[in-house]
Amino acid sequence: MDIKELVKEHNDELIELRRDFHKHPELGFKEFRTSKKVASYLKGLGLEVTENIAETGVIGLLKGDNPGKTLMLRADMDALPITEQNDVKYKSQNEGVMHACGHDGHTSMLMIAAKILSKHKDKIYGNIKFVFQPNEEGEAARRMIEEGVLENPKVDGAFGIHLWSPIESGKIAISHGAVMGGLYEFELKIKGQGGHTSAPHDAIDPIIVASNIIQSVQTIQTREINPLKPTLIMFGQINGGTATNIIPEEVMLRGTIRYLYRDNPGGNERPKERFERIIKNVCDSHRAEYEIEYIVESPPVYNNEEMVELAYESAQEVMKNKSDIVDYTNLAGEDFGEFSDEVPSTFYFIGIGNKEKGTHFAHHHPKFNIDEDSLSLGVEMHVRSALNYLSK
Fold first, then answer.
1. Class of domain 182-298
2. 3-180+300-389 belongs to which homologous superfamily?
3. Which of 3, 10, 80, 202 is deepest in the core (most CB within 10 A)?
Protein backbone atom coordinates (compact mmCIF):
# COMPACT_ATOMS: atom_id res chain seq x y z
CA MET A 1 0.00 0.00 0.00
CA ASP A 2 1.75 3.13 -1.26
CA ILE A 3 -0.01 5.86 0.72
CA LYS A 4 1.78 8.75 -0.96
CA GLU A 5 0.78 7.48 -4.38
CA LEU A 6 -2.83 6.99 -3.28
CA VAL A 7 -2.99 10.55 -1.97
CA LYS A 8 -1.44 11.85 -5.18
CA GLU A 9 -4.03 10.01 -7.26
CA HIS A 10 -6.80 11.86 -5.41
CA ASN A 11 -5.22 15.32 -5.45
CA ASP A 12 -7.36 16.74 -8.26
CA GLU A 13 -10.53 15.61 -6.52
CA LEU A 14 -9.23 17.04 -3.24
CA ILE A 15 -8.74 20.50 -4.72
CA GLU A 16 -12.05 20.32 -6.58
CA LEU A 17 -13.89 19.56 -3.34
CA ARG A 18 -12.12 22.34 -1.48
CA ARG A 19 -12.91 24.92 -4.13
CA ASP A 20 -16.55 23.84 -4.28
CA PHE A 21 -16.94 24.29 -0.52
CA HIS A 22 -15.08 27.61 -0.70
CA LYS A 23 -17.43 28.80 -3.41
CA HIS A 24 -20.51 27.88 -1.35
CA PRO A 25 -19.71 28.80 2.28
CA GLU A 26 -22.33 28.46 4.99
CA LEU A 27 -22.47 29.82 8.53
CA GLY A 28 -22.61 27.65 11.65
CA PHE A 29 -25.69 25.42 12.01
CA LYS A 30 -26.65 26.46 8.46
CA GLU A 31 -24.25 24.12 6.63
CA PHE A 32 -27.16 22.51 4.79
CA ARG A 33 -25.56 22.16 1.37
CA THR A 34 -22.19 21.21 2.85
CA SER A 35 -23.51 18.50 5.18
CA LYS A 36 -25.75 17.07 2.45
CA LYS A 37 -22.77 16.77 0.10
CA VAL A 38 -20.59 15.22 2.81
CA ALA A 39 -23.27 12.69 3.79
CA SER A 40 -23.88 11.68 0.19
CA TYR A 41 -20.15 11.25 -0.37
CA LEU A 42 -19.72 9.05 2.71
CA LYS A 43 -22.72 6.91 1.80
CA GLY A 44 -21.16 6.38 -1.60
CA LEU A 45 -18.10 4.95 0.16
CA GLY A 46 -20.27 2.39 1.94
CA LEU A 47 -19.95 3.97 5.39
CA GLU A 48 -22.65 3.97 8.05
CA VAL A 49 -23.78 7.59 8.06
CA THR A 50 -25.50 9.57 10.79
CA GLU A 51 -26.91 12.94 9.80
CA ASN A 52 -28.33 15.95 11.64
CA ILE A 53 -26.31 15.48 14.81
CA ALA A 54 -26.05 18.92 16.42
CA GLU A 55 -28.39 20.09 13.63
CA THR A 56 -26.09 19.83 10.61
CA GLY A 57 -23.30 17.54 11.75
CA VAL A 58 -22.41 14.33 9.92
CA ILE A 59 -20.70 11.15 11.15
CA GLY A 60 -19.38 8.41 8.89
CA LEU A 61 -18.48 5.13 10.58
CA LEU A 62 -15.95 2.82 8.91
CA LYS A 63 -15.71 -0.63 10.44
CA GLY A 64 -12.41 -2.38 9.85
CA ASP A 65 -12.20 -6.07 9.00
CA ASN A 66 -10.53 -6.74 12.36
CA PRO A 67 -11.65 -5.97 15.95
CA GLY A 68 -9.98 -3.16 17.84
CA LYS A 69 -10.33 0.39 19.15
CA THR A 70 -12.33 3.28 17.70
CA LEU A 71 -10.56 6.39 16.46
CA MET A 72 -12.25 9.71 15.73
CA LEU A 73 -10.98 11.99 12.96
CA ARG A 74 -12.64 15.40 13.03
CA ALA A 75 -13.12 18.23 10.54
CA ASP A 76 -15.18 21.41 10.88
CA MET A 77 -17.48 22.73 8.14
CA ASP A 78 -18.66 26.27 9.00
CA ALA A 79 -17.65 29.55 7.40
CA LEU A 80 -17.56 33.13 8.74
CA PRO A 81 -19.65 36.31 8.26
CA ILE A 82 -16.94 37.99 6.16
CA THR A 83 -17.07 39.45 2.64
CA GLU A 84 -14.29 37.86 0.59
CA GLN A 85 -11.76 40.13 -1.13
CA ASN A 86 -9.88 37.45 -3.09
CA ASP A 87 -10.07 37.57 -6.87
CA VAL A 88 -10.22 33.83 -7.62
CA LYS A 89 -12.45 31.67 -9.81
CA TYR A 90 -13.82 29.91 -6.73
CA LYS A 91 -14.61 33.12 -4.83
CA SER A 92 -17.55 32.92 -2.44
CA GLN A 93 -20.92 33.21 -4.14
CA ASN A 94 -22.70 33.83 -0.84
CA GLU A 95 -22.54 37.54 -0.14
CA GLY A 96 -21.09 38.34 3.27
CA VAL A 97 -20.07 34.74 3.98
CA MET A 98 -16.58 33.33 3.45
CA HIS A 99 -14.37 30.38 4.33
CA ALA A 100 -11.71 32.52 6.03
CA CYS A 101 -10.39 29.94 8.46
CA GLY A 102 -9.57 26.84 6.39
CA HIS A 103 -12.60 24.72 7.22
CA ASP A 104 -13.26 24.12 3.53
CA GLY A 105 -9.84 22.47 3.41
CA HIS A 106 -10.44 20.49 6.60
CA THR A 107 -13.66 19.03 5.24
CA SER A 108 -12.12 18.13 1.90
CA MET A 109 -9.04 16.49 3.44
CA LEU A 110 -11.14 14.27 5.69
CA MET A 111 -13.45 13.24 2.84
CA ILE A 112 -10.52 12.06 0.72
CA ALA A 113 -8.96 10.31 3.72
CA ALA A 114 -12.25 8.49 4.25
CA LYS A 115 -12.24 7.44 0.61
CA ILE A 116 -8.72 6.01 0.80
CA LEU A 117 -9.22 4.27 4.14
CA SER A 118 -12.58 2.76 3.12
CA LYS A 119 -10.78 0.81 0.40
CA HIS A 120 -8.33 -0.74 2.88
CA LYS A 121 -10.55 -2.09 5.65
CA ASP A 122 -8.41 -5.21 5.80
CA LYS A 123 -5.61 -3.14 7.36
CA ILE A 124 -7.83 -1.57 10.01
CA TYR A 125 -8.08 -3.16 13.45
CA GLY A 126 -11.11 -1.39 14.85
CA ASN A 127 -13.28 1.49 13.65
CA ILE A 128 -12.89 5.03 12.39
CA LYS A 129 -15.44 7.76 13.01
CA PHE A 130 -15.17 10.53 10.44
CA VAL A 131 -16.78 13.48 12.22
CA PHE A 132 -17.81 16.58 10.31
CA GLN A 133 -18.68 19.21 12.87
CA PRO A 134 -20.91 22.25 12.37
CA ASN A 135 -20.42 25.65 13.96
CA GLU A 136 -16.90 25.33 15.32
CA GLU A 137 -16.75 29.12 15.43
CA GLY A 138 -19.70 28.94 17.83
CA GLU A 139 -18.32 26.06 19.89
CA ALA A 140 -20.63 23.19 18.87
CA ALA A 141 -18.29 20.33 19.86
CA ARG A 142 -19.87 20.08 23.32
CA ARG A 143 -23.29 19.74 21.73
CA MET A 144 -22.04 16.90 19.52
CA ILE A 145 -20.70 15.17 22.62
CA GLU A 146 -24.03 15.59 24.40
CA GLU A 147 -25.77 14.05 21.38
CA GLY A 148 -23.53 10.98 21.46
CA VAL A 149 -20.69 11.51 18.99
CA LEU A 150 -18.26 9.72 21.30
CA GLU A 151 -20.52 6.69 21.82
CA ASN A 152 -21.79 3.67 19.84
CA PRO A 153 -19.04 2.66 19.40
CA LYS A 154 -17.18 4.41 22.19
CA VAL A 155 -14.31 6.57 20.93
CA ASP A 156 -10.90 5.66 22.37
CA GLY A 157 -8.83 8.44 20.80
CA ALA A 158 -9.08 11.41 18.45
CA PHE A 159 -7.04 13.45 16.00
CA GLY A 160 -7.76 16.86 14.54
CA ILE A 161 -5.96 19.06 12.01
CA HIS A 162 -5.95 22.80 11.46
CA LEU A 163 -4.50 24.44 8.37
CA TRP A 164 -2.53 27.41 9.68
CA SER A 165 -1.27 30.45 7.78
CA PRO A 166 1.22 31.65 10.46
CA ILE A 167 3.16 28.44 9.78
CA GLU A 168 5.16 28.15 6.56
CA SER A 169 3.78 25.89 3.85
CA GLY A 170 5.32 22.44 3.84
CA LYS A 171 5.68 22.23 7.62
CA ILE A 172 3.72 20.31 10.23
CA ALA A 173 3.51 21.51 13.84
CA ILE A 174 2.99 18.92 16.59
CA SER A 175 3.38 19.93 20.23
CA HIS A 176 2.91 18.55 23.72
CA GLY A 177 0.44 19.82 26.30
CA ALA A 178 -1.84 22.80 25.64
CA VAL A 179 -1.60 23.92 22.00
CA MET A 180 -4.61 26.26 21.69
CA GLY A 181 -6.18 28.50 24.28
CA GLY A 182 -9.16 28.04 26.51
CA LEU A 183 -11.77 30.70 25.86
CA TYR A 184 -14.45 32.72 27.61
CA GLU A 185 -16.21 35.09 25.22
CA PHE A 186 -18.18 37.63 27.23
CA GLU A 187 -20.76 40.40 26.97
CA LEU A 188 -20.62 42.85 29.88
CA LYS A 189 -23.32 45.48 30.38
CA ILE A 190 -22.49 48.36 32.73
CA LYS A 191 -25.67 50.00 34.01
CA GLY A 192 -25.45 53.57 35.29
CA GLN A 193 -27.88 56.48 35.46
CA GLY A 194 -28.28 58.78 32.51
CA GLY A 195 -28.00 62.54 32.64
CA HIS A 196 -26.65 65.72 31.09
CA THR A 197 -22.91 66.19 30.65
CA SER A 198 -23.21 69.64 32.25
CA ALA A 199 -24.33 68.02 35.53
CA PRO A 200 -22.41 64.73 35.89
CA HIS A 201 -22.94 64.76 39.67
CA ASP A 202 -26.62 64.01 39.07
CA ALA A 203 -25.80 60.90 37.00
CA ILE A 204 -23.85 57.66 37.31
CA ASP A 205 -21.55 57.59 34.31
CA PRO A 206 -21.18 54.03 32.90
CA ILE A 207 -18.43 55.22 30.53
CA ILE A 208 -16.00 56.03 33.32
CA VAL A 209 -16.94 52.77 35.05
CA ALA A 210 -16.22 50.86 31.85
CA SER A 211 -12.85 52.59 31.40
CA ASN A 212 -11.86 51.70 34.97
CA ILE A 213 -12.81 48.05 34.40
CA ILE A 214 -10.80 47.87 31.17
CA GLN A 215 -7.73 49.23 32.93
CA SER A 216 -8.11 47.30 36.17
CA VAL A 217 -8.59 43.80 34.78
CA GLN A 218 -5.24 44.03 33.01
CA THR A 219 -3.58 43.49 36.39
CA ILE A 220 -4.96 39.93 36.43
CA GLN A 221 -2.60 38.81 33.68
CA THR A 222 0.39 40.83 34.95
CA ARG A 223 0.02 40.86 38.75
CA GLU A 224 -2.21 37.97 39.83
CA ILE A 225 -1.50 34.97 37.59
CA ASN A 226 1.92 33.45 37.05
CA PRO A 227 3.24 34.97 33.79
CA LEU A 228 4.48 31.50 32.81
CA LYS A 229 0.80 30.57 32.53
CA PRO A 230 -0.37 32.77 29.63
CA THR A 231 -3.61 34.68 30.19
CA LEU A 232 -5.12 37.35 27.92
CA ILE A 233 -8.09 39.59 28.67
CA MET A 234 -9.00 41.60 25.59
CA PHE A 235 -11.87 43.95 24.77
CA GLY A 236 -13.01 43.95 21.16
CA GLN A 237 -16.11 46.17 21.37
CA ILE A 238 -17.30 49.17 23.36
CA ASN A 239 -20.77 50.52 22.62
CA GLY A 240 -22.61 53.27 24.47
CA GLY A 241 -24.03 56.75 24.18
CA THR A 242 -26.13 58.60 21.62
CA ALA A 243 -24.86 62.19 21.71
CA THR A 244 -21.93 64.35 22.87
CA ASN A 245 -23.89 66.01 25.67
CA ILE A 246 -25.69 62.97 27.11
CA ILE A 247 -24.41 60.63 29.81
CA PRO A 248 -25.80 57.26 28.71
CA GLU A 249 -27.75 54.82 30.84
CA GLU A 250 -25.47 51.90 29.96
CA VAL A 251 -22.38 50.77 28.12
CA MET A 252 -21.83 47.36 26.53
CA LEU A 253 -18.37 45.76 26.50
CA ARG A 254 -17.56 42.62 24.52
CA GLY A 255 -14.34 40.66 24.56
CA THR A 256 -12.49 37.47 25.37
CA ILE A 257 -10.52 35.81 28.13
CA ARG A 258 -7.95 33.34 26.80
CA TYR A 259 -5.66 31.05 28.76
CA LEU A 260 -3.21 28.23 28.14
CA TYR A 261 -3.76 25.92 31.08
CA ARG A 262 -6.54 23.77 32.46
CA ASP A 263 -8.86 26.11 34.35
CA ASN A 264 -10.40 23.72 36.87
CA PRO A 265 -11.88 24.22 40.35
CA GLY A 266 -8.68 22.93 41.99
CA GLY A 267 -6.40 25.33 40.11
CA ASN A 268 -5.09 28.65 41.39
CA GLU A 269 -5.54 30.71 38.19
CA ARG A 270 -9.35 31.08 37.95
CA PRO A 271 -9.27 33.96 35.41
CA LYS A 272 -13.05 34.21 35.12
CA GLU A 273 -13.48 34.43 38.91
CA ARG A 274 -10.82 37.14 39.17
CA PHE A 275 -12.37 39.01 36.23
CA GLU A 276 -15.78 39.12 37.89
CA ARG A 277 -14.33 40.14 41.27
CA ILE A 278 -12.78 43.26 39.75
CA ILE A 279 -15.93 44.11 37.79
CA LYS A 280 -18.05 43.88 40.94
CA ASN A 281 -15.68 45.97 43.03
CA VAL A 282 -15.33 48.71 40.40
CA CYS A 283 -19.09 48.88 39.89
CA ASP A 284 -19.70 48.99 43.66
CA SER A 285 -17.23 51.83 44.10
CA HIS A 286 -19.00 53.87 41.38
CA ARG A 287 -22.58 52.93 42.44
CA ALA A 288 -23.14 51.18 39.13
CA GLU A 289 -24.64 47.79 38.36
CA TYR A 290 -23.64 45.18 35.80
CA GLU A 291 -24.78 42.10 33.94
CA ILE A 292 -22.37 39.59 32.40
CA GLU A 293 -23.05 36.76 29.97
CA TYR A 294 -20.60 34.24 28.54
CA ILE A 295 -21.52 33.55 24.92
CA VAL A 296 -18.82 30.95 24.40
CA GLU A 297 -16.88 28.81 26.87
CA SER A 298 -14.39 26.17 25.81
CA PRO A 299 -11.34 24.55 27.41
CA PRO A 300 -7.84 24.66 25.92
CA VAL A 301 -6.88 22.04 23.36
CA TYR A 302 -4.72 19.69 25.37
CA ASN A 303 -2.63 17.05 23.60
CA ASN A 304 -2.22 13.60 25.09
CA GLU A 305 1.41 12.47 25.34
CA GLU A 306 0.94 9.04 23.71
CA MET A 307 -1.19 10.48 20.91
CA VAL A 308 1.43 13.17 20.29
CA GLU A 309 4.11 10.52 19.87
CA LEU A 310 1.93 8.59 17.43
CA ALA A 311 1.20 11.75 15.41
CA TYR A 312 4.90 12.57 15.38
CA GLU A 313 5.74 9.09 14.07
CA SER A 314 3.15 9.55 11.31
CA ALA A 315 4.60 12.96 10.44
CA GLN A 316 8.07 11.44 10.11
CA GLU A 317 6.64 9.08 7.49
CA VAL A 318 4.98 11.98 5.67
CA MET A 319 7.84 14.50 5.68
CA LYS A 320 11.17 14.10 3.90
CA ASN A 321 13.00 16.27 6.42
CA LYS A 322 12.47 16.02 10.18
CA SER A 323 13.32 19.71 10.42
CA ASP A 324 9.94 20.41 8.77
CA ILE A 325 8.19 19.04 11.85
CA VAL A 326 8.08 22.01 14.20
CA ASP A 327 6.73 23.07 17.58
CA TYR A 328 3.88 25.59 17.77
CA THR A 329 1.43 26.86 20.37
CA ASN A 330 -1.07 29.73 20.25
CA LEU A 331 -3.91 31.28 22.24
CA ALA A 332 -6.61 31.14 19.57
CA GLY A 333 -9.77 29.29 20.61
CA GLU A 334 -10.74 25.94 19.09
CA ASP A 335 -13.53 23.80 20.49
CA PHE A 336 -11.64 20.59 19.74
CA GLY A 337 -10.65 21.17 23.37
CA GLU A 338 -14.03 19.69 24.32
CA PHE A 339 -12.99 16.42 22.68
CA SER A 340 -9.50 16.50 24.21
CA ASP A 341 -11.16 16.85 27.63
CA GLU A 342 -13.06 13.61 27.04
CA VAL A 343 -10.70 11.25 25.19
CA PRO A 344 -6.93 11.04 24.56
CA SER A 345 -6.41 13.38 21.61
CA THR A 346 -3.89 15.31 19.59
CA PHE A 347 -4.51 18.41 17.53
CA TYR A 348 -1.82 19.58 15.14
CA PHE A 349 -1.22 22.17 12.45
CA ILE A 350 -0.29 22.08 8.78
CA GLY A 351 1.36 25.20 7.42
CA ILE A 352 -0.23 27.03 4.50
CA GLY A 353 1.67 30.32 4.75
CA ASN A 354 3.22 31.30 1.43
CA LYS A 355 3.60 35.01 0.65
CA GLU A 356 4.29 34.41 -3.04
CA LYS A 357 0.96 32.60 -3.37
CA GLY A 358 -0.87 35.15 -1.22
CA THR A 359 -1.72 32.59 1.47
CA HIS A 360 0.01 34.41 4.32
CA PHE A 361 -2.98 36.45 5.51
CA ALA A 362 -4.24 35.88 9.04
CA HIS A 363 -7.20 33.67 9.76
CA HIS A 364 -10.52 35.56 9.57
CA HIS A 365 -8.97 38.09 7.16
CA PRO A 366 -11.06 38.83 4.01
CA LYS A 367 -8.05 37.83 1.86
CA PHE A 368 -7.37 34.57 3.69
CA ASN A 369 -6.64 31.70 1.31
CA ILE A 370 -5.07 28.24 1.38
CA ASP A 371 -1.89 27.00 -0.25
CA GLU A 372 -3.57 24.02 -1.88
CA ASP A 373 -0.27 22.15 -2.17
CA SER A 374 -0.51 21.65 1.60
CA LEU A 375 -3.85 19.84 1.49
CA SER A 376 -2.31 16.53 0.48
CA LEU A 377 -0.19 16.60 3.64
CA GLY A 378 -3.39 16.69 5.68
CA VAL A 379 -4.86 13.73 3.82
CA GLU A 380 -1.71 11.68 4.25
CA MET A 381 -1.51 12.54 7.95
CA HIS A 382 -5.12 11.44 8.46
CA VAL A 383 -4.50 8.15 6.67
CA ARG A 384 -1.19 7.32 8.34
CA SER A 385 -2.37 8.36 11.81
CA ALA A 386 -5.45 6.17 11.51
CA LEU A 387 -3.54 3.15 10.25
CA ASN A 388 -0.81 3.56 12.87
CA TYR A 389 -3.36 3.90 15.68
CA LEU A 390 -5.43 0.95 14.49
CA SER A 391 -2.57 -1.30 13.45
CA LYS A 392 -2.32 -4.89 14.67
1. alpha beta
2. Zn peptidases (3.40.630.10)
3. 80
